[in-house]
Amino acid sequence: MRKSTLRDVSRATGLSIFTVSKALNGGEGVSELSREQVLKAARELGYIPNRAAQELRKASRDSIAVVTASTSNSYYLDLMAGIQQMLQPSDWTVVVGDVAVNGAYDPALEDRMIRRLIESRTAGVISTLRLSFDNTQLLERWGVPLVFVDSSPPEDKPSLPSVTTDNYNASLMVGEHLAGHGYKRWLFLVYPSKWTSRFDRERGIRDAARFHGAHVDVIESENDPASASAAFADYLAAQGRLPDVLITGNTPLLLGAMTLVRQRAIRIPDDMALIGFDEFAWAPLIDPPVTVLNERSEEIGRVAARTLAAIIASQTEAEARGQPANPQYLPQYRQQVPAALVVRRSCGCGGGPHPFVAKETSR
Amino acid sequence: MRKSTLRDVSRATGLSIFTVSKALNGGEGVSELSREQVLKAARELGYIPNRAAQELRKASRDSIAVVTASTSNSYYLDLMAGIQQMLQPSDWTVVVGDVAVNGAYDPALEDRMIRRLIESRTAGVISTLRLSFDNTQLLERWGVPLVFVDSSPPEDKPSLPSVTTDNYNASLMVGEHLAGHGYKRWLFLVYPSKWTSRFDRERGIRDAARFHGAHVDVIESENDPASASAAFADYLAAQGRLPDVLITGNTPLLLGAMTLVRQRAIRIPDDMALIGFDEFAWAPLIDPPVTVLNERSEEIGRVAARTLAAIIASQTEAEARGQPANPQYLPQYRQQVPAALVVRRSCGCGGGPHPFVAKETSR
DNA sequence: GGTTTCCTCCTAAACGTTTAGGTTTTACCG
DNA sequence: CGGTAAAACCTAAACGTTTAGGAGGAAACC
After folding, report:
1. Domain A60-165+298-337 and domain A167-296+339-360 have a common topology
2. CB-contacted nucleotides of strand C (7 Å)
3. Which of A43, A159, B4, B188 could form a disulfide with B45 if both were Cys (CB 3.0 to 4.6 A apart)?
4. For testing the chain B interface, which of A4, A48, A135, A258 should be mutated: the one with the most B CBs within 10 Å?
5. Nearest Cβ partner for B285 among A85, A118, A258
6. Cα B62 from chain centroid?
7. What's the CATH number for B167-295+339-360?
8. With respect to CATH, is domain B61-164+298-336 assigned 3.40.50.300?
9. Which residues in chain A have their CB less than 8 angstroms from residue B81's CB?
10. Distances in Å between the alpha carbon of A55 and those of A121, B49, B123?
């Protein structure tokens, strides 16, 4: 049994390739009889269209890419869920492109990925990290709309859309909570600035510390647990004592820090309090349950997907009117999603079996 | 700035399309001067080839698909890592196809996915779940090699390759450990048989129970935490008391069960012991640290990828000799990877700060 | 009977590459 | 300078679709 083409179906039915194509795609101008014959023959021959040929002919763009690094971060799964939810119905194909090898971001991989996406004439891109200037340039040149999530565009392209947590206010809120506990010496363990949410988070923490008369040390680690563990250990070795509270920039860093905490038998929150960015499924089950800033990645995904879809729609509409097909980026496409603090035990809040309070950042 | 084609580059250089193509692809028979000119022009024009056209012409098959459901299960990330590791160097593109919507497996989605994969002339498929007979049939008809991981082929196609954990022996080992603790009443909370690893796991647990004179109840839950929680609650309501030990079939089910455990303030391992299938990053940090059967998904991924690559290679070789291009499935393609028991505290093993013992299933 | 209208179906030209086979140019040699 | 071989390049045909434009015939109208 061999791979069959439209021509095979055409031969089998005695109808022309044109008619067969029309019949299969539900077009007008085909008699019911012919259509039935075609469908029957196609089924029997196991005909499945060749997508490459379709795309070539239709210049079709029906897939959307999500660019990500360090997929192991669980927020990414929620993000994807949000995106899928929004895009599935209008049947876009969502593909994910990982630009990390063995968990570490690789610029060469970023270049390769963007090229690939253009090669396959992707309709739009959602990126979880700041892309290089050249790559945003390239996408623009090829008229591929781009939306950043949880990250901001390169400085030279400030008008590009982005959907982020309200990181600054969220961090202020975290700081306020810590100050409420009376902690004076904070440690912020954070990932590299390739993930640009770092800037606002760090700024918020620093401002909160200044405002509340606390001192904050910031240490940077690669975006994986092992590096985080090492960075934390180095800090402790240099300082000789624990901070009042450790703030971890995201879940992989939290995992790394917790591993060291366990090894050194550090008691939380007695010896040191702990608070983390990003909610995750196991947080309530850890010993002790971890207080966390929930950044609502699913909602972020939905907003980003909706935005991208809108841009593409207006683009194809302009194209239909024969106008230049460059994506139009409106100012209102820069959006922030509020975050909520999920208070558990690690921050020092005592509590019954389920200490669970949620506050929201004001918008 | 508009999208440029080979023809544009050709016009810009005064060379023919043929020469331009050769030059870009590093082919012979192009003078150094011409090549330079072509590369320069291509760069200036921002030329990027159209993949659809290339694929159509070359009938190229350079991507491999991983079919999965319920991505949220973290073992899948390790699996992917193993596959990528093996396939990245030979520059296959690995795409993942999720056949679950909102975490729930959907047969219609499976059909759609397989069709899509054939449409895009995917070179090979790795599936984490048993596919329908029709779909395996379809893939076979189109000459697309198929390897199952952590799951087995439909009964009608027993010769298809599969790479699984040595689930039966692993389960025996789990049972033996439980018997060693003297537990007599076991509860096995397990996912639906769509994921075929269930069969061997259940059989192993049952055999071990029989051998050691224990009683085992098996309850089935959908493959997500909420369902697991509900199923466990139902069981408790019906029984009126806790089992000696709860065995969870995978990580999402463990999460669901643990959530209920926390709600009901069940003390582990005092009130009930706990042991789970599949290792995951947070297991050592849970309260108490969870004893787990580590199924080595990364290794499974590597083996599966290697097997698939071998099948494809022999297939293309046969094709080159003008022979039938159906994939050849050899008996040795059915492989089992040993698993290891990671003993922590939840099973009742007391222990210092790091009770960490690893045993392997004998092969 | 001639004209118009409507259906159904067809031919042929694209889409942007790769490649088989051929032709021109260049380089070299006697 | 003629002849030959290699190098450089070209023309044209494919790959499997979709689609613009039109042919053919039957029914409907005058």
Report:
1. yes
2. 7-12, 14-21
3. B4
4. A48
5. A258
6. 20
7. 3.40.50.2300
8. no
9. 102
10. 9, 14, 18
Which residues 109-168 of B have a C-beta within 8 angstroms of A? 115-116, 118-121, 138, 141-143
Q: Is B51 on the interface with A (CB under 8 A)?
A: yes
Report the C-alpha gap between B119 and A80 in whole angstroms: 24
> Do the Cβ atoms of B93 and A102 come within 8 Å?
no
Nucleotide nearest to A22 (CA to C1'): D18
Find all residues with CB under 8 Å of A158, minimum gap 6, and list them: none
A104 - beta bridge partners? Answer: A101
CATH topology of domain A60-165+298-337: Rossmann fold (3.40.50)
DSSP state of A332: G
How distant, in Å, are the alpha carbons of A26, A35, B134, B240, B325 from that of A9?
16, 12, 21, 64, 21
pLDDT in tens, A231-283: 999 999 999 999 999 999 999 999 999 999 999 999 999 999 999 999 999 99
CATH superfamily entry for domain A6-49: lambda repressor-like DNA-binding domains (1.10.260.40)
The closest CB to that of A284, out of B48, B119, B262, belongs to B262
Phi, psi of A99 (to 5 degrees): -105, 25
Distance from CA of A91 to the nearest CA of B (A): 11
- Transcribe A202-219 into DSSP letters: HHHHHHHHHHTT-EEEEE
Across the interface, do B259 and A284 touch by the CB < 8 Å criterion?
yes
Residue B93: φ, ψ to 5°: -95, 125
> From the CA atom positions of chain A, what is the Rg in Å?
26
Digitized pLDDT (tens) for each residue of chain B, 363 residues in all: 467 899 999 999 999 998 999 899 877 778 888 899 999 999 999 999 999 999 999 887 889 999 998 766 678 888 988 998 899 878 788 888 889 877 789 999 999 999 999 999 999 999 999 999 999 999 999 999 999 999 999 998 889 999 999 999 999 999 999 999 999 999 999 999 999 999 999 999 999 999 999 999 999 999 999 999 999 999 999 999 999 999 999 999 999 999 999 999 999 999 999 999 999 999 999 999 999 999 999 999 999 999 999 999 998 888 777 776 788 899 899 999 999 999 999 999 976 444 444 455 544
